[in-house]
Specification:
Strand 1 and strand 2 form a beta hairpin. With 675 residues, the protein is of the alpha+beta class. The strands form 5 sheets. A 5-stranded mixed β-sheet has the order 5-6-7-9-8. The structure holds zinc ion. Zinc ion binds next to helix 20.
C-alpha cells in the first residue's frame, strides 16, 4: 500500500470526473502521503539547469524476481553509458576522465571563484553527456581561463591530449548537430557518427547505393555503425557490436541482459531479450527488426525496457542512433484508464481530417501504458523524455503495431518541482490563467496520450514512396512531431473524449490550445540564447504549428497578438476556428509525409519553424529572467542495491541519492567500459 499513493492519486486527479472510488484514508496512506511531501524533488541548480529526483512508484508491489529483472536491466543500461559520450563527440570521454580526475584530486579552496566556475562547467558537461549543450547543441563555453585549467591538470596529474584540451577553449567543432540546410550537414556537425572529413554528399551516396527503395520491409540502414574512411580512402561502416566498435561496453551490456533473460516474466519477454542479445553480438539489422517485432508483441509483463541504439535525432542525416535505456514498471491503474484511447483508435483514424487515401483501413495494435521509470542511462539521462513510442521502423509499426508509454512518475516529479510565476506572467486574462492552472495537468496528459497513441500511429505512406527519412531528410523528425501534435490538438477538442469518460469539460481542450499557442509563439524562446535560431526538432515543430496557425487565422483574428504595458501576449479568440485550422494543417503535413514532398516540407519548416524575432526573443528572456527558473531540468537517478544474506538475494532496495556530482563520479568509476 505504501508506494501506491501518488500514482493512484495522480490518476484520480487526472480523471477528474465522477469515477473517484471512495477510499478510506488509512493510517498507512497518511504516512505515505507525508513521506511524499517531505521528498526533496529538486536538489540543486547550476547554469540553465535544475536537478530533480523522481520516485519509483510501485516498487514495493513487485516480486523479488521482478525486482531482480529491473535491477539487471538498469545495470545493462548503465554498462553502455560511455557509448553515448563517444557518439556525441570523439573527444568527450577523454575530457570527461580528465575533469573527473581533477574533481577527485583537487585539494585547493573549494570556495574560490575560479573553482566554482570550473565545477559549473564540469556539471554542465555531465549533464550534456559531453561538451556540447544537450539541447542547443552548441559547445559549452568555460568561464575559467586556460591557464587555470592547465594548473588543475598539473596539480592533480590528470591527462589530456593537446587536441582535446584545445577544443574546450577554441571555436573548433562548435556544434554537435547542425540542421542548417545551407551547410554541409556532416562537416558542420561535431557528432562522431562519421569520420570528421566525410562529407554529406559522400555519406548520402554511400547509403543511396546500399538502400533498396523497392523493399517494403527495409532494414534500418546505417543505424548501428560509424561511417569511416579506410587506408585506401574508401568509405565503409564499422559496426557497434560485441566484437566491433564499442565491443567492451557491449559485452558488458550482454552480460546483464543474459541475467535479465534468466528472470524474465514470460516466454515472449525472454525471447525478445534473446534476440536483442543476438543483435548486439552480430550487428545484423535483420535481427534488429526481428527483435523489434518480438518486443512489440511482448506486452504481458509488468516490467518493460528500452535498450539499444534507438533514436536518430542526433544524426543530421537521420541514419545513426544514439544509445539509450529506459527501464519501466507498469502503472496498472492509470494504464487501464488510458486503454480507452487505444480501444477507440479506429474512430480517431476514421474521423481524421486527413485525405481518405492517407488513412489506415485498420490501425494496428498500439499499446499504451503509463509507466514508472525505474532507471535511465545513455541519451535519456539526465535530461529525459516524458513519452516514448517505439519501434521507429515504419513498416513494423504498420504491420505489427507499436508500444507507447508515458513516464508518469517523471511527469509527477515535474509537477511537484514546478516553479510558479510563468502562467501569471504570460497569460492575458484572469480566465485564461485560472483555466490553465486548473487543467494544466490533465490537458498535458491528454495531449501526450493522444500524441503518442493516436498521432504517431495515424496515416500511411502512398505506395512506392520511401520512408520519411529518405524523402523528407533533415525535416522528417520535425514534420513527424508536428503531425503527431496536430492529431492531439485536433482531438483534444472533440466531445468524443467526454463521451469516452476521459475528460468532463471542453475547457481542457481550451487550456491546451492556450498553452500550445503561448508556448509555440513565445514562451519556448526562453530556451535559446540571443542570436540563435530554433534547431531542436520538437521546438521547431511547436513553432511551426503555432506560427502557421497564427498566419492562417489572421483574416478572422483567430489568434490575436496583444500588447499591454510593453508586454506581448498571444490570445486565442476562437477555439472552434482554431481547431479547424489544426485540422487543415494536419491534412497538409500528412500529405507531405504520404507523398514524400520534400520541397513543401522544407518550405513550411523554414518559413514558420526556424526563424526567431529578436525583439520578441529579448522580451521573453527578460520576462523569464525575473522569474528565476532555469529552462532545463534533468534527474539524479535512483540507485538499486541488492541486499544479500550470504549468497542469497534477499531484496533489492531503492535509494534516492541527492548529490549529482557524487553520482557522476560513481558512474565514472563503476560503469565505464570503453577505453
Ligand atoms: Zn512524438
Amino acid at each position: 500500500m505504501k508506494q501506491l499513493s501518488y500514482a493512484l492519486l495522480a490518476s484520480i486527479i487526472f480523471m477528474s470526473c465522477n469515477q473517484n472510488k471512495e477510499q478510506e484514508t488509512t493510517v498507512e496512506d497518511k504516512a505515505a502521503v507525508e513521506e511524499m511531501e517531505n521528498f526533496e524533488w529538486e536538489t540543486e541548480q547550476f547554469a540553465d539547469i535544475r536537478m530533480l529526483r523522481y520516485r519509483i512508484d510501485g516498487w514495493e508491489k513487485l516480486s523479488l524476481k521482478q525486482k531482480e529483472l529491473v535491477y539487471y536491466l538498469t545495470q545493462a543500461g548503465l554498462a553502455g553509458r560511455d557509448i553515448v559520450w563517444d557518439q556525441y563527440y570523439r573527444h568527450n570521454l577523454e575530457i570527461r576522465r580528465a575533469l573527473e580526475t581533477i574533481v577527485k584530486g583537487y585539494e585547493g579552496d573549494s570556495e574560490s571563484e575560479e573553482w566554482k566556475k570550473f565545477m559549473v562547467y564540469v556539471k554542465r558537461v555531465w549533464f550534456s553527456n559531453g561538451i556540447h549543450h544537450h539541447y542547443s547543441n552548441l559547445k559549452l563555453k568555460p568561464e575559467f581561463s586556460q591557464d587555470y585549467f592547465t594548473k588543475l591538470l598539473a596539480k592533480t596529474g590528470a591527462q589530456l591530449s593537446p587536441e582535446a584540451k584545445a577544443v574546450i577553449f577554441n571555436d573548433k567543432d562548435g556544434k554537435k548537430v547542425s540542421k542548417d540546410a545551407d551547410t554541409d550537414l556532416l562537416l558542420a556537425s561535431a557528432i562522431n557518427f562519421y569520420d570528421p572529413d566525410i562529407t554529406q554528399a559522400e555519406a548520402e551516396e554511400f547509403y543511396k547505393k546500399m538502400i533498396d527503395s523497392d523493399d517494403p520491409r527495409p532494414i534500418s540502414y546505417g543505424l548501428n555503425s560509424k561511417l569511416v574512411r579506410d587506408e585506401k580512402g574508401e568509405i565503409k561502416e564499422v559496426k557497434w557490436t560485441e566484437t566491433g566498435m564499442y565491443g567492451s561496453a557491449i559485452a558488458e551490456i550482454i552480460k546483464w541482459l543474459e541475467k535479465a533473460k534468466g528472470v524474465s516474466e514470460n516466454k515472449a519477454q525472454g525471447e525478445a531479450l534473446g534476440l536483442l542479445i543476438e543483435y548486439y553480438r552480430t550487428g545484423d539489422l535483420k535481427k534488429w527488426d526481428e527483435y523489434n517485432i518480438a518486443w512489440v508483441k511482448a506486452t504481458e509483463g509488468d516490467i518493460d525496457y528500452i535498450n539499444s541504439f534507438i533514436e536518430v535525432y542526433d544524426d543530421p542525416l537521420g541514419y545513426k542512433a544514439t544509445y539509450e535505456t529506459v527501464v519501466q514498471i507498469k502503472d496498472f491503474d492509470a494504464s487501464e484508464k488510458m486503454k480507452v484511447i487505444s480501444d477507440n483508435i479506429q474512430y480517431f483514424e476514421d474521423k481524421s481530417p486527413i485525405m481518405n487515401e492517407h488513412k489506415k483501413a485498420k490501425v494496428t495494435g498500439v499499446t499504451y501504458k503509463m509507466v514508472a521509470v525505474a532507471g535511465e542511462a545513455g541519451a535519456t539521462t539526465p535530461a529525459t523524455p516524458i513519452g516514448v513510442n517505439l519501434p521507429n521502423a515504419n513498416w513494423i509499426r504498420t504491420e505489427h503495431g507499436s508500444k507507447s508509454v508515458s513516464l508518469a512518475n517523471i511527469e509527477n516529479a515535474y509537477e511537484h518541482a514546478k516553479g510558479g510565476g510563468f502562467l501569471e506572467e504570460f497569460t492575458f486574462t484572469k480566465e485564461e490563467l485560472e483555466r490553465s492552472k486548473k487543467y494544466a495537468e490533465i490537458s498535458g496528459k491528454m495531449h501526450t496520450a493522444l500524441h503518442e497513441v493516436v498521432g504517431h500511429a495515424s496515416g500511411k505512406l502512398n505506395p512506392g514512396i520511401g520512408t520519411p527519412k529518405e524523402t523528407l531528410k533533415n525535416y522528417a523528425s520535425t514534420l513527424e512531431e508536428g503531425r503527431a501534435d496536430l492529431v492531439a490538438l485536433y482531438y483534444i477538442m472533440d466531445p468524443k473524449l467526454i463521451e469516452l469518460g476521459l475528460i468532463d469539460t471542453m475547457a481542457v481542450g481550451m487550456a491546451e490550445y492556450d498553452n500550445y499557442i503561448r508556448n509555440g509563439m513565445m514562451l519556448q524562446l526562453r530556451r535559446l540564447n540571443m542570436g540563435e535560431q530554433v534547431e531542436e526538432d520538437h521546438m521547431r515543430n511547436r513553432q511551426l504549428v503555432a506560427a502557421w496557425a497564427y498566419e492562417m487565422g489572421k483574416a478572422d483574428n483567430v489568434i490575436e497578438r496583444k500588447n499591454l504595458d510593453g508586454k506581448t501576449y498571444f490570445v486565442v479568440n476562437d477555439y472552434k476556428k482554431l481547431r479547424a485550422i489544426f485540422g487543415k494543417q494536419l491534412r497538409e503535413i500528412q500529405r507531405i509525409k504520404s507523398e514524400g514532398d520534400y520541397e513543401a516540407g522544407k518550405l513550411l519548416v523554414e518559413t514558420y519553424g526556424v526563424k526567431v524575432d529578436p525583439k520578441l526573443h529579448q522580451e521573453v528572456l527578460d520576462r523569464a529572467a525575473k522569474l528565476n527558473i532555469p529552462p532545463y531540468s534533468g534527474f539524479v537517478q535512483p540507485v538499486l542495491r541488492p541486499v544479500m544474506s550470504g549468497d542469497t538475494l534477499k531484496d533489492i532496495e531503492v535509494m534516492y541519492p541527492t548529490d549529482f556530482t557524487q553520482q557522476m563520479l560513481m558512474y565514472g568509476e563503476q560503469h565505464s567500459f570503453l577505453k
